[in-house]
Amino acid sequence: MNTYGHTFRISTYGESHGPAVGAVIDGCPAGLPIDLSLIQYELDRRKPGQSRITTQRREPDEFEVLSGIFEGKTTGMPIHLMIRNTDARSKDYSHIADKFRPSHADFTYQQKWGFRDYRGGGRSSARETAARVAAGAVAKQLLATMGVEIYAYVSQVGPLRLETPYQELDLRQTDTNAVRCPDAAMAEKMYDFIDETRKKQDTVGGVVSGVLRNVPVGLGEPVFDKLHAELGKAMLSINAVKGFEYGSGFQGVEMYGSQHNDIFYRDGERVRTRTNHSGGVQGGISNGEDIYFRVAFKPVATLMQDQPSVNQEGEDVTVSGKGRHDPCVVPRAVPIVEAMSALVLADFYLRNQACQPNLAAQSAVASE
Amino acid sequence: MNTYGHTFRISTYGESHGPAVGAVIDGCPAGLPIDLSLIQYELDRRKPGQSRITTQRREPDEFEVLSGIFEGKTTGMPIHLMIRNTDARSKDYSHIADKFRPSHADFTYQQKWGFRDYRGGGRSSARETAARVAAGAVAKQLLATMGVEIYAYVSQVGPLRLETPYQELDLRQTDTNAVRCPDAAMAEKMYDFIDETRKKQDTVGGVVSGVLRNVPVGLGEPVFDKLHAELGKAMLSINAVKGFEYGSGFQGVEMYGSQHNDIFYRDGERVRTRTNHSGGVQGGISNGEDIYFRVAFKPVATLMQDQPSVNQEGEDVTVSGKGRHDPCVVPRAVPIVEAMSALVLADFYLRNQACQPNLAAQSAVASE
Amino acid sequence: MNTYGHTFRISTYGESHGPAVGAVIDGCPAGLPIDLSLIQYELDRRKPGQSRITTQRREPDEFEVLSGIFEGKTTGMPIHLMIRNTDARSKDYSHIADKFRPSHADFTYQQKWGFRDYRGGGRSSARETAARVAAGAVAKQLLATMGVEIYAYVSQVGPLRLETPYQELDLRQTDTNAVRCPDAAMAEKMYDFIDETRKKQDTVGGVVSGVLRNVPVGLGEPVFDKLHAELGKAMLSINAVKGFEYGSGFQGVEMYGSQHNDIFYRDGERVRTRTNHSGGVQGGISNGEDIYFRVAFKPVATLMQDQPSVNQEGEDVTVSGKGRHDPCVVPRAVPIVEAMSALVLADFYLRNQACQPNLAAQSAVASE
Amino acid sequence: MNTYGHTFRISTYGESHGPAVGAVIDGCPAGLPIDLSLIQYELDRRKPGQSRITTQRREPDEFEVLSGIFEGKTTGMPIHLMIRNTDARSKDYSHIADKFRPSHADFTYQQKWGFRDYRGGGRSSARETAARVAAGAVAKQLLATMGVEIYAYVSQVGPLRLETPYQELDLRQTDTNAVRCPDAAMAEKMYDFIDETRKKQDTVGGVVSGVLRNVPVGLGEPVFDKLHAELGKAMLSINAVKGFEYGSGFQGVEMYGSQHNDIFYRDGERVRTRTNHSGGVQGGISNGEDIYFRVAFKPVATLMQDQPSVNQEGEDVTVSGKGRHDPCVVPRAVPIVEAMSALVLADFYLRNQACQPNLAAQSAVASE
């Protein structure tokens, strides 16, 4: 289904070249003041046309609140954020109406549903993520009331990998450059690499790293709905993602247990760990340390080059390079990774409230 | 919740040292003949005590069918598979009743619920995966009626990495050795490495690779419930998993789009791709090619060494190395990865039936 | 949550005096031709201002399709139907901003969420049902492809009860009068009764009966999600509903089993029952006979009379009779009961597809 | 699915003549002391063979706790309560293996799944409700910590209807007689009526009334998951139920709004209503007044008389009166109605915790 979350839940809708995309948030607690400009801020971070290294499609990505917010505060009812599509040039796509673009969803959608909206990939377009970003901006405001901080940044573009650990970076610098890499020198190299790739009419992949700070202890569920498992699903659900690792990740494989174990110690009133190979999650549940993870994005599938393919009739055809697309997706993926992080945490936060047995206190309130 | 799946759904229960663990499968179609010996076969692959490199806990892991199977066939009602715990030495754990073992769930469980079954980690123990393996063996039998083949194997132990692509391996050789690596020479090296690690009273991580063949075109959902996103969640929900990648994975990051794109061609009645960087999934939906992925497991947290820690009162304590544990989890993780793969595919298979208005026509295409 | 259904699922949003109400349908199969005029037709049946005996609020209730329909057919993606509110006179409600109207949701909403949109009851207003009716019109079109017929009609207004069994009524006559009672003579009496009640500035209750024909055998689930249980929930979720009964209902209580049992017989290729006290549902699953049920609606709570009450501060206040409201809700409830019936059946239809291992064989039986 | 509830969730399994029935409770808060004897007490109230007017099947209905309770308290993990079937005389049913018993689920199960466990109705048997009663006994203990009181009683048997309002009854007298009617004189009449019906080898229906006291204000959700809608679904999901009404119910239809509205007044710190036609629920949410409702049960379908029917081949057959069954189901239905009430309230109680925005207090706790 087009829905994510159990208790704080979002449902999105909309196609790349339909009238609108949007998200309906269900389960947000009432009485939360919402700063609409923060929603617009996040949409602006994701929107196309930000620089030479992003797609030239022009969408203002302005949203409208259709429900759930009254006098500046949430009411506990579904919050609907709608974003009209304005620069939908459907004619750009008539040439591929029956062709299967390589490594796109054209073939699988056609086979699964037997009928598809081919314009710009329809629902499979990353345009859908605008709705996630808007919803995530609400989740961020909920989490901010608890002091939770959510950061993502570009840590790799093609072969250019930022080796500096996140602890040594100033994550507030991420948005100071078009690449969204908090290391200025590396950002410049990455920018040039993407721009050269664009000039070659090619595309390249990258990695977005996430860091979630001040997450309360206790978020996550045992067994299937572990915090990192839901984070992984949320990240893998973003267009073009091929991999997810958290904490020590794939590199932890090569460590001995005696190196990898995070030793507990007491720090004032808190129990903390001296290292954080666990990535802030133990047994599927947040332990209060920083949650960190890496998300791999493949190179964008739409090229400005001709490619051979087949059409719905199984005939050989050529897919020619047209349309407006990103040479590298990761700069615009940063707010999406943050949004999905916020949605995962908000859901677990509310689920955790439900499982807490503060019965006495609660009933005292409820019976008044 | 302790439930996985939307339409083919399993719920598991049970603690490491409680009376039993088990799974209730809901949504399995009726009339499916079940070979109980195949369930036992999978449980035997996962059970402890198989060789010198696995834990010496002795559990026969025999199961009982409490419902849902009548005269050898499924009835469409919940199928309950229960496995009694027999070798539950709870006294082994009294010494850690109030201590937080490093990189275990002791601390987070204590904080989240305020009360925990400390015996062997309670529900956080990998013993719970026996229930998944039993349920997965039912899902495998459902999928086998369509010809779907599910393989997993050990592709890395600590620094020892099998570089051979899965296409060049004979995956039926996986169970011919205790490590479950289909390359005999590498298996031997891995065995020795694990055994040496064990002798050092240490533990080490590894990677399990999965290969899913003959998966029908069309499994998976758009947006949030993409096939690879659910696979990722399912794998990340297994104890000790730190990362998941499919198809080109993290390495795909460094490729150009012109290298990475999988070119379509016609092969008889089928549309296929010349390469498979997509890992059998495009736009979140299976395209009929092999689905392959890699799952990273951290080194087991329980060591036969003393480690410093704190207890529930925040006092400094020593966690001493006791109990019976695996020096490396990946050999026994192979059937778990297969089981979770089967559960994911079975669920999507049934979900796909629901979304098809013209199933007959579709299956004709899909089965080719 | 503001979502109904498991596989064919709708989510609604919107407040009485907010910018819009609407529904997002998820899970509708692809390739279904949609006649938009049939959606408008159902909205027109529900909309206010149809006659002297309905509220004088003026809403054109025109809808916009924002996603999920392309070139006249469903795509399998979420279908978003949005209805703008136009005649939202919020000022009408400022006088009750902090007062609790008797038998409305004002008090409970205030207590539960601590903050509420008081304009016209906000989300608790029956205006939300416009979204259900629009979504139900899509479900009806899905069901029509199988020949399912969905009827509802007014069978009681206050003390005026139509005793004629549904089998003896011509249900196509329902919409020939403003009351929506298929018996013309009774409709006239009911109309006069409602109009007199209106002149007395009072309101009155009523009963809507539902009849679902040609429902395939096999819809419904065992145990919790029985077909009649979901129908009951769906009906009880409509504003002002106080009771639900199906088949013999409360009157069946007084029968002996030997009278009540429906005897099976063979009618050509079908197995049928000679009587239908079961109301078309046995063991929670449709048996192919007509499904029929009755839904009790209380008198509308908004009166054109002054009533004593308290406000949020607990002070005594007077709620004066203002606003625009229906003296009796059942005429406009008829399309809502039909819409909810269609949503329940569509969901079970798709769920049934998922649970069938041999759909082709089954549909042969079911379609007879 | 065989699961009920969103946050406090139960899944049941088991057939009438299989090895066991049982329930897995997921989402129960941790640290709740469980008195196992109270679970047995409720099972004893439901179990067969209690008196001459109930079935003579002999089941001790003893349960085993397989998980989720440790040292007398819940751990937050799934609680599995298993009840072995002991007096399963499967041979009693071989004579109806291919016959469709009138007004049973035999026909619909056969058509839906194509294969069924015919022994005693398999899963469609009311034996499944033992699992609900066990789970409900846990929910009751959770609710008891808040002072919630749950009562059900027999208010009608065939034509014998107890007209006394529930407020004038001493509901603690319910279990003092075999009928479970709190009015001793009426109970005696009902007993005789049921016994005479039994002697005539017939069966008769009845009504169970429910009264839920001290329910906190604020339980329930807007729109689809209204408290009374979920209560209705829960009751309608019980075997043999044909109708549900709450508060004024079907009789409220005949009232004017000016009679029906419940006027608010201030009673000390509480806001209360002078009448309670709302049945304790307004806008789908509890308002703190007593919740009351009535549930209609049809006469039991199994008769000790021969009845004509058809078999799976469509041939005319006779279903002869054998087996052990109740002449009237309502005395044993009382604990089932209570159990389902408890499950509904427990779920809404936890859902309400999740939607409460006590962010500041919560984060203070969580961050320590």
Automatic annotation (TrEMBL), chains A, B, C, D:
It catalyses: 5-O-(1-carboxyvinyl)-3-phosphoshikimate = chorismate + phosphate. FMN binds at R123, S124, S125, N239, A240, G283, K298, P299, V300, A301, T302, R324. It is an enzyme of class 4 (lyase). It comes from the Bacteria. SUPFAM superfamilies: Chorismate synthase, AroC. GO terms for cellular component: cytosol. Reduced FMN (FMNH(2)). NADP(+) binds at R46, R52. Belongs to the chorismate synthase family. This reaction introduces a second double bond into the aromatic ring system. This is Chorismate synthase. It comes from Catalinimonas alkaloidigena. The gene is aroC.
